[in-house]
Amino acid sequence: MKKITILFGILSIATGAFAQSIDFSKQSWEKVLAEAQSSNKNIFVDAYTTWCVPCKKMDKYVFTKPNVATFYNEYFISIQMDMEKGEGATFAKKYDVKAFPTLLYFSPDGELLHRVAGYKNSDEFLEVGITALNPKLRLGTMTKKYLQGERSPEFLRKYAYACKAALDYKYRDVAEMYLNTQKEWSSPENIQFIFDFTENTRSRYFNYMIDNRTLFEKQLGSGAVFNKVQSIIQIRLDLMLNQKKENVAELKGIEELFQKVYKEDAVVKYAAFRMTYYRTRGDRGGFAEAAVDYVENMQGITADELNSTARIFAEVIEDEKMLENAVSWSKRAIEIEARYTNYYTLAALYYKLGENRKAKKAAKKAIKVATKNNEDAQVVKDLLNQIKSGKEFGAS
Q1: The whole model's pTM is what?
Q2: What is the model's pLDDT at position 11?
Q3: What are the distances in angstroms from CA 113 to CA 42, 102, 104?
Q4: How far apart are CA 268 and CA 76, in angstroms?
Q5: Which one of 24, 102, 202, 322 is CB 3.0 to 4.6 Å from 288, fit for a cystine?
């Protein structure tokens, strides 16, 4: 790597100028291979799609960097291939290209030497190119060693990262092999490794990170650890929200997960999730029960939260006991902030419960507050007229 870096520096000084962009060949893959063999140069393939935003960013902002262009034009024959058209589609199938962009590096004879997936800035992209030219570091060489039985801890660690960068999913098995060689997970190197390879809430990596959260936060920062934990949990929650059938066992699993991660905040966070879960499923009873748990356990709940939850009850909940809960929330919202919208919700709840006298009183109060604050109270006036008409709640 040092030789390549030094050579690149000498080249830049000697030429006194940089190329303006990577010189991508317009020829077919076969002709590029023939040219590579005749010139004894490696090949770089930018595997892209027309809809890939990171691909377009690299094309516009990375491939046009003078130092990037000079390096790649010196050491590679480069070609861009749309993975959804023509020979690109065949190429994508042959080399299992599923993420975009995927950056592939071949020998002059067409042997795949190295690959990475995803957007890279100019410095990262240069480093990838340098790695592709280094027989000791590139993915192809490491894969051969792995298949030949190389299992030293240092090799497994590097190979896990290389596979992950290439979106070769055997990185999960390799990472497991590496950690199985480690008696002490708490070393700075292993803390970083576990952080980088933790992907789901059911893994022993995740449990170790939660059990030793202070250790991770000390090394990586509380913000980074918080974001990592949240992103992993959200993946699991999203999967559950997209399930067609209700999964009671998984709901219990989510509750246990929240208890482990959030401790004293678990009840509120679990209730909030259940509110979303049952609402997306159209389960009004489940939503109502979750809302009660949320409101009754949420410390420092705001008037807006109380009012908005009570308003939903007024609109969709029929159970009288649950509606009485919503009345108490609406009153609490008024105590915190006597806005006309809070009185309006209270009026709607009383009306739905058939307590028209109280509903009229709350509606009139809402109109009075709105008038005092120069707010439009037409929606409250409409409600008051409906109450006076003697029609049932919701009747047109």
Answers
A1: 0.82
A2: 47
A3: 9, 13, 8
A4: 57
A5: 322
Task: Collect all residues with Cβ–Cβ distance below 8 Å to 108 and sequence separation of at least 6.
Answer: 36, 37, 39, 40, 41, 42, 43
123 Cβ contact list (under 8 Å, min separation 6): none
pLDDT in the model for residue 244? 86
3-state DSSP call for residue 24? strand
* 336, 371 Cβ separation under 8 angstroms: no
The pLDDT assigned to 16 comes to: 43
Spell out the residues 6+ positions from residue 26 whose beta carbon is closer than 8 angstroms to its own.
none
CB atoms within 10 A of CB 153: 13
Give the whole-angstrom CA distance, residue 1 versus residue 130.
7
**DSSP code, position 60:** I
pLDDT means per 10 residues, the chain with 396 residues, are 46 53 96 96 97 97 96 97 95 95 97 97 97 95 97 97 95 97 96 97 96 98 97 96 91 96 96 95 95 95 96 95 97 96 96 95 95 93 89 63
Provide the phi-psi class of 150: left if phi over 0, else alpha when psi is between -120 and 50, else beta: beta
End-to-end CA distance of the chain: 78
Four-point Cα dihedral 63, 65, 69, 72, nearest 10: -70
Task: State the pLDDT at residue 394.
Answer: 63
Q: How far apart are CA 313 and CA 328, in angstroms?
A: 12
Amino acid identity of residue 378, one-letter, is Q
Q: Specify whether the CB–CB gap between 23 and 77 falls below 8 A.
A: no
- Strands across the sheet with 42-48, in order? 24-25, 76-82, 42-48, 102-106, 112-117
Does residue 77 sit in helix, strand or coil?
Answer: strand
**CA 272 to CA 296: how far, in whole Å?**
12
Say which residues have a Cβ less than 8 Å from residue 143's Cβ, sequence separation at least 6.
159
| Cα–Cα distance measured from residue 200 to residue 190, given in angstroms and rounded to the nearest whole number | 18
In DSSP terms, which residues pair with 77 in a beta bridge? 43
Q: Scanning the structure block, which residue is given the tokens 């024959």? A: 77
Name, in order, each residue with C-beta under 8 angstroms of 231's C-beta and a sequence gap of 6 or more.
none
